[in-house]
C-alpha cells in the first residue's frame, strides 16, 4: 500500500512542467488544485532569489513526500529548441530521494531525451518521475521514450504530462506508469485530467534485474 501511495502522490503533486502557482510566501494553495503548500517554502522561492542575485532562474520540480518533507530538482537540460536556455539556466546535479521506501529519481520533460542521464542513476533508482509540458505533435516520442527508459534501466517510470491547449499547441496528456519490464500499469485517457494509481514495488525492480542482468554489461 505504501508503494501504491507513492505513485498516487507523484501524479497528484508532481504537476506538469510549467504549472503556474501563486501565494508561496503566504502558504496559500496552487490555483486549480487542493494541494496545500508546505509551511516552509524555501524550495519554491529559491528561483526568485536566484533571479534577484542576477542569475537566470531554474526550471524547478518540487516533490512533497508523504511525511511532509519537500525535495527539489532543477532541470538539467533546458529545451533550446524553444529557447528555454535563454530564460532558465541548467540545473547542476541529479536528484534521487527516498519516498516510502522507493528510490525515486527526478527529471523534467526534455530530460527524457537524454538516455545517459537516466543510465547514470540506474543502480540507485527504483522509479523515475518525469513531469512534462509535452505537446500532442510529438506525443509518440513521449510515449516511446518513457517505455524505453523503463526497459533499458529496468525501473519504473512515471510520466506526468499536461492536457489542454495554449495559443500555439495542444496537449493530450498521455500520463503513464510503466513497470521495469516495459509493461504499462496505468495510462491516462488522451486529453482528460486524471489521477492514476498503480502499485510499485522495489522488489520487482530487483527481481527483473536479477533475472535479466543487463546493467552490469554497460560500458562507460
Written overview of the protein:
With 220 residues, this protein is an alpha+beta fold. It has one domain: Carbon-nitrogen hydrolase (Nitrilase/N-carbamoyl-D-aminoacid amidohydrolase). It contains five helices and ten strands. The strands form three sheets. A six-stranded mixed sheet has the order 3-4-5-6-9-10, sandwiched between helices. β1 and β2 form a beta hairpin. It is globular and about 50 Å long.
**H and E order:** HHEEEEHEHEEEEEH
CATH-derived architecture:
4-Layer Sandwich
| Beta-strand percentage range | 15-25%
Instruction: Give the overall average pLDDT.
Output: 82
The rounded distance between the terminal residues' Cα atoms is: 37 Å
SS field, number of helical segments? 5
| Shape call | globular
Q: Might you state the CATH topology name? A: Nitrilase/N-carbamoyl-D-aminoacid amidohydrolase
Model regions low in confidence, pLDDT < 50 over at least 5 residues: 1-15, 19-38, 44-49
How are strands sequenced across the largest beta sheet?
3-4-5-6-9-10
- Tell me the domain tally: 1
Structural class: alpha+beta
CATH superfamily: Carbon-nitrogen hydrolase
For the biggest sheet, the summary is: 6 strands, mixed
Amino acid at each position: 500500500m505504501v508503494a501504491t501511495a507513492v505513485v498516487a502522490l507523484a501524479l497528484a503533486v508532481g504537476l506538469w512542467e510549467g504549472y503556474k502557482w501563486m501565494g508561496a510566501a503566504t502558504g496559500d494553495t496552487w490555483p486549480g488544485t487542493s494541494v496545500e503548500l508546505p509551511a516552509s517554502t524555501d524550495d519554491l522561492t529559491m528561483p526568485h532569489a536566484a533571479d534577484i542575485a542576477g542569475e537566470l532562474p531554474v526550471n524547478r520540480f518540487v516533490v512533497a513526500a508523504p511525511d511532509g518533507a519537500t525535495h527539489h530538482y532543477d532541470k538539467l537540460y533546458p529545451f533550446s529548441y524553444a529557447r528555454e536556455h535563454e530564460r532558465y539556466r541548467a540545473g547542476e546535479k541529479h536528484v534521487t530521494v527516498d519516498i516510502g521506501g522507493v528510490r525515486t529519481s527526478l527529471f523534467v520533460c526534455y530530460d527524457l531525451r537524454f538516455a545517459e542521464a537516466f543510465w547514470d542513476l540506474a543502480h540507485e533508482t527504483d522509479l523515475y518521475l518525469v513531469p512534462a509540458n509535452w505537446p500532442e505533435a510529438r506525443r509518440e516520442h513521449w510515449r516511446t521514450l518513457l517505455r524505453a527508459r523503463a526497459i533499458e534501466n529496468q525501473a519504473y517510470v512515471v510520466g506526468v504530462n499536461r492536457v489542454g491547449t495554449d495559443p500555439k499547441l495542444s496537449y493530450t496528456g498521455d500520463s503513464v506508469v510503466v513497470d521495469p519490464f516495459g509493461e504499462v500499469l496505468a495510462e491516462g485517457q488522451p486529453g482528460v485530467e486524471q489521477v492514476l494509481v498503480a502499485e510499485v514495488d522495489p522488489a520487482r525492480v530487483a527481481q527483473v534485474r536479477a533475472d535479466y542482468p543487463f546493467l552490469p554489461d554497460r560500458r562507460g
